[in-house]
Amino acid sequence: MDHLLEIRNLKITTLRGKDKVYLLDSVDLSIRKKCSFGVVGESGCGKSITASAILGLLPYPLRVAEGSIRFDSRDGEKELLKLSRKEMRQVRGEEISMIFQEPMTSLDPIFTVEMQMFEALSFHHPGMGKGEMREIALEMLHRVNIPRPEQTLASYAHQLSGGQLQRIMIAIALINNPRLLLADEPTTALDVTIQAQILHLMNDLKEQRDTSIIMITHDLGVIAETCEEVAVFYAGQIVEQAQVVELFTHTAHPYTKGLLRAVTSLGGAQRKLYTIPGIVPPGGQWSRGCRFAERCEQCMEKCREEMPALREIAPGHFCRCFLQDREVEA
Amino acid sequence: MKRKDRPVAGRALPGNESILRQLWRDPMGRAGMIGVGLVILMALLAPWIARFDVAKMNSKAKLAAPGAEFWFGTDHFGRDVFSRIVYGARVSLEVGIVAVGIAAGFGYLLGMIAGFFEGRTETLIMMVMDVIFAFPSILLALFIVSALGTSILNTMIAIGIVNIPVFTRTVRASVKTVKSTDYIANARSIGLKKMKILFRHVTPNVLAPFTVQATLALSGAILTEASMSFLGLGIQPPNPSWGSMLSDARKYMERAPWLVLFPALFIILTILSFNILGDSLRDVLDPKLKL
Amino acid sequence: MRDYIIRRLLTLIPILIGVSIAIFVVMQLIPGDVVSGILGIEETPELRAMWEAKLGLDKPLIQQYFSWIGRAVTGDFGESFRTGAPVFPEIMNRFAISAELAILACIIAWIIALPLGILSSLKRNSFIDRIVRVVALLGVSVPNFASATLLILFFSKAFHYYTPVKYVGLFENFGTNMEIMILPAFILGSVMAGSVMRMTRSSMLEVLRQDYIKAVRAKGSPERVTIFRHAFRNSSIPIVTLIGMQIGALMGGTVVIEQIFSIPGLGQFTLTGISQRDFPVVQGCVLFIAFLYVMVNLLVDILYTFIDPRISYS
Amino acid sequence: MTERKSEFLLEVRKLQVYFPIRKGLMKRVVGHVHAVEDVSFSVRPREVFALVGESGCGKSTTGSAVLRLIEPTGGQVFFRGDELGRLSEEEMRLKRRDMQFIFQNPYASLNPRMNVWKLLSEPLRIHFQLSPGELRERVGEMLRLIGMTEDQLERYPHQFSGGQKQRISIARALITHPSFVVADEPVSALDVSIQAQILNLMMELQQEMELSMVFISHDLNVVRHISGSVGVMYLGSLMETGDTEEVYRHPVHPYTRALLSAVPSHDPLHRSRHIVLEGDVPNPADPPGGCPFHTRCSLCSGRCREERPELREIAPGHCAACHHVE
User: Fold this and answer.
1) I need a surface site. Which of A146, A226, C295, D300 has the fewest CB within 10 A?
2) Mean pLDDT of chain B
3) A47 shares its domain with A100
4) Are A156 and A291 members of one domain?
5) Domain termination residue (choose one: A177, A195, A220)
6) What SS3 state is found at A278?
7) Backbone angles phi, psi at A243, to 5 degrees
8) What total number of domains does chain A contain?
9) Could you report the per-residue pLDDT of A238-253, keeping only the tens digit for each?
10) Domains identified in chain C and CATH numbers
11) Which CATH class is domain B25-290?
12) DSSP character string of C198-220
């Protein structure tokens, strides 16, 4: 396998009343080894459920309706969607780990940090002794810059701050040296100065290890700071994908342009902020044409009728927009 | 986009869409409404439905089996069981409604006061509630009835008193929740007077859990009345009560099992209907509490 | 922790005083007169005065209250007007019987309710879930005296089986005692099981939505560990609260079942006291039951601290 | 009371808000959370003053205390020369016509059982005696200002999106034509693309209605865009105040510098060089002695641990509370 992870034609549905509603529609993603890959989009665009689907952790009533997720594990290639429960458990936490948006609620409140770190080890190394586990746990806490590891091990979640908890979550996620880390908005709930600490830490750890990262966020700034490659999600689809520098310098899709203009106009010279008009259409209420058509300033007749395909407009740069097709053809 | 007119988020709240219609849409809610509706109809139309005088004894037809004349058979005095069941529904509902009325009225008032004014008043009210709460409800009701004397009114009062604390607690808890919401702070920030905040903003938002509580308390009150009558300390003969009918029937169980079956069936179905209705009502009014 | 227990015990005092005053006041309202009840047609003014003095009824109410409460705190609840026997030892005997019934009922309720509640939360909206919900609804809706009467009818019609009428103690004959107790315990247990099942289901559903459950699964946790070690323990606080209230209600609240099955428990004792206007018995029983109820609540609050480290009453 | 003439509409002097911590057998007060500690600032007519800081720094409490939605423990607030702390509850209630509050979370701050008409007409009914016609007119005018139509009057809050709800709650605050508003994180509960729409609306309305505003936010970009002057808060205290552009271009306080450098840049070619602060914010129930920031400050010296720095003017209109700033 060339890639660490290959998602093909992934579709996720939910139930609204008795109707099946698509939340994610034919997503393809390929993650290279030792890469940090950003996924950016607004709430409800399908970025977080993609991560949950990779680990088989979609909450009820969400389901994978179609597609494949292939993963290059240590013992050969695996189709994650076809694994048995037991096989999936062996992948979780051992080869693919995840950290979450709310560190305050991601640790079980009634157990100590020590117990929860030991758990992560013992699920995958049943024979490991207490002494060895403790040594590894302390080492990991040290790596994530927890000031007093010994004391922290004996603490409960409510005794620690958000920043510390997110460090601990990272320590737990990396404790088995996974090949892939899914980071679902890991800094959204944190203050800026703490966000800076965590992003700094993640960049450091990435340098030291072979772990690939999928960074899911709504913040283009976080992408710019941490990622090499990025995919922009809108209404359950990828609308643009490229190397980070390429995306920021040769932005192609009107939605991505809008997002960038909205953030860069903040604090800029002009008084009036740039806004993308309208709101994100919720899942299942998509028109058959381009899903961004309603809000697009350059919307054409064709855009309302027909769905544009995701095409390569420059080497490694993909975009789902008819305007780009025209430029390529011309 | 045919869904465009649907609400963006959350369920419709009362005030803009009929609660009854929402209940009807839910199969469970529909079952509860039908059940409760039938019991109410039976109680209201008792004089027309009942075929015999409930107290009229008939020495020729003691312990008659169910048949064309006596649909549900007769008891050991020869009284028509069907007629007694029909009038029993009336007694059950009367006791239930008045008792819950007493409990809800006092509970609402006390809960509002305790929740809104806090401090010593609250401590005192809640202490009294704790005292009432410290007795098992059936025992307390029996105790009160034995002090006041057995009669329908005293049964109602006893069951009412027993149920006050539940309402006080529910109302107080929701007043406190509502009070800490941003929209109450908002009402204060636009300069609304305290009393107006209480009536205009707090009351409507407390009503939902209150209504749910009332429905569930109604089934509880009917149950308590039946239990008390079963023990002989509730509704006194010759008034028909499902509880005392069941209790009397035990002596003739072997010969006349219908005497046990029909009252038991009606008690169970009535309480079941109210519980189902209460559950569905909670789902509609207060989706957060959904089981 | 110790401070907390002391504080809670102190707050029990006003509640128990309130309870005792409430009992005393209600007792005064009871119509009918014990003395004429005892003497019947042989009543003469002299005899009456003698009995009133003997029972302490000639003193002012306040004094009657204080002499009663003063002795009650030392465990002396006076003597029964009817039998003349001291009330307190009899309460303890009866309590032992009621407690056995309550414990059996709890065990039956938990064996039914907890596994089914957990199962139904995990298989949400499945066929099993629907069945469990209907069963739970029936459990909370069928009055215990109705199910008791129906079951007795069923056993007699189908098997010609009747439960023993005369009560036999646990240590006299274990087999017969169990034969007497198991049906009433099952009936009490099934009513409790209904609400425990509902609570378990809703509480589990709430916890299963939490981030930390997803995080535990993301670590590769086996389902067994996720469900029992993490989800169930976290959802147990409301369940423990409910169970505590149920146990409190079982103390004396079993009166109907005790009556039907002729079990000489605390509830039956109270009921007989009420119908015979036996003041000391009723006062004693009701005060004792209220005391038990408050103690159970205290135990539940203390139990919280062992379940959840966030709750510390320091 | 003699009317004091002042160039400021609002003056806050040494505002303090402490929350008692109760513990033990008799619920004794064993300490206080120092939520707001000696905060002073002033707002000119038609000026937007921003309070910025991280969560728990006391910026929202300050906003609520200014309007006496939380009673301050100490200090004074002057509005048009009147000391608000001396007003009776009733006088304060009437004052609210002129000073309003916009809440952070439009999902929670609108009564779910009131429709738009009731929500918008309620403030008018409280403070004015208007005929039904006038009432309709004022509500209609406000609806147009926030870009909504009259056919939406009968709808309830849950039938609107987050952005629309925030428009309604802004309208509710501004319908009495106040001259002063506290806006507490008015856009942080909203999606990024909606935030800009609401900010534009607020800026338009601020200009049109000649509003003075205290704008509370944790988002440094938003604050830079909307405010004319700014106060940076940390652990209940103001660290630095001044003209917004001046503070952003030349931050002098070490905390302000760290805070500004922590904002991710939107240019992958120029990833920002963060000043990464060590550790966490201290517990406000047990604040460190001396300078509140000394536990995390790289410049910390002996004096910082001993003596609490006052907010001093270091350039015209630019103040900082730091011993190391000249």
Assistant:
1) C295
2) 81
3) no
4) no
5) A177
6) coil
7) -65, 150
8) 2
9) 999 999 999 999 999 9
10) 87-208+239-307 (1.10.3720.10)
11) mainly alpha
12) HHHHHHHHHHHTSHHHHHHHHTT
Is A220 found in the same domain as A156?
no
Q: What is the mean pLDDT of chain D?
A: 89
Q: What percent of chain A shows pLDDT beyond 70? A: 96
Rounded-to-integer distance, Cα C55 and Cα D295, Å? 75
CATH of the domain at A100: 3.40.50.300
D4 within some domain = no
Each residue of D103-144: pLDDT tens digit? 988 888 898 888 999 999 999 999 999 999 999 999 999 999
pLDDT at D209: 93
Q: Could you give the ipTM of this predicted complex?
A: 0.82
Q: Is the pLDDT of residue A96 over 60?
A: yes
Pick C219's closest partner by Cβ from A52, A111, A123. A123
- Domains in chain B: boundaries: 25-290
Are both A169 and A108 inside the same structural domain?
Answer: yes
- Are residues B134 and C31, on separate chains, in Cβ contact within 8 Å? no
pLDDT digits (tens, 9 = 90+) for B9-38: 333 344 445 777 878 888 888 888 999 999
Q: Across the interface, which of B8, B183, B188 has its CB nearest the CB of D69?
A: B188
CA C121 and chain centroid, separation: 28
CB contact at 8 A, B251 and B16: no
pLDDT band for B287, please (50, 70, 90 cuts): low
CA distances from B84 to B60, C4, D35, D200, D235 (A): 18, 55, 69, 73, 74
DSSP letter at A294 equals G
* D183: in domain: yes
Nearest to A320 by CA among A308, A306, A330: A308
A142, A154: one domain? yes
- Do residue A188 and residue A45 come from a single domain? yes
Beta carbons of D24 and C6 less than 8 Å apart: no
pLDDT tens for residues B268-277?
Answer: 999 999 999 9
Query: What is the reported pLDDT for D63?
Result: 95
Q: Are residues A78 and A194 in the same domain?
A: yes
Cβ-based neighbour number of residue A188 at 10 Å: 15
Kindly list the residues from chain A whose CB atom is less than 8 angstroms away from the CB atom of residue C309: 109-110, 156, 158
Same domain, A198 and A54: yes
Among B1, B5, B8, most A C-beta atoms within 10 A, so best to mutate, is B1
- 3-state SS class at A175: coil
Contact B260, B85 (CB under 8 A): no
Predicted local distance difference test score (pLDDT) of residue B5: 32
Looking at the complex, report in whole angstroms how far the Cα of residue B4 sits from the nearest Cα belonging to chain A. Answer: 8
Q: Chain D partners of A275 at a C-beta cutoff of 8 Å? A: 193, 196-197, 200
Question: Under an 8 A CB cutoff, do D193 and A224 touch?
Answer: no
- The angle, 0 to 180 degrees and rounded to 10, between the axes of the packed helices C233-253 and C266-276 is 40
Interface of C with A in 228-247 (CB under 8 A): 230, 233-234
Residues C290, C299: Cα–Cα separation, whole Å? 14
Report yes or no: B73 and B66 within 8 Å, Cβ to Cβ: yes
- CB contact under 8 Å between C221 and A102, yes or no, is no
Check CB contact under 8 Å for C7 and D23.
no
Those of residues 276-305 in D touching chain B at CB distance below 8 A are: none
Whole-number average pLDDT of chain C = 85
Q: pLDDT tens across C91-111, in order?
A: 999 999 999 999 999 999 999
Domain that holds residue A324: 5-95+178-329
For residues D194-221, give the mean pLDDT: 92
Q: Which among C18, C138, C253 is the nearest to B136, CB-wise? A: C253
User: Which CATH number does the domain housing residue D255 bear?
Assistant: 3.40.50.300
> Nearest-CA distance from B3 to chain A in Å?
8
Inter-chain touch D25–C7, beta carbons under 8 Å: yes
Number of domains forming the structure of chain D: 1
**Is the CB of residue A211 less than 8 Å from the CB of residue A200?**
no
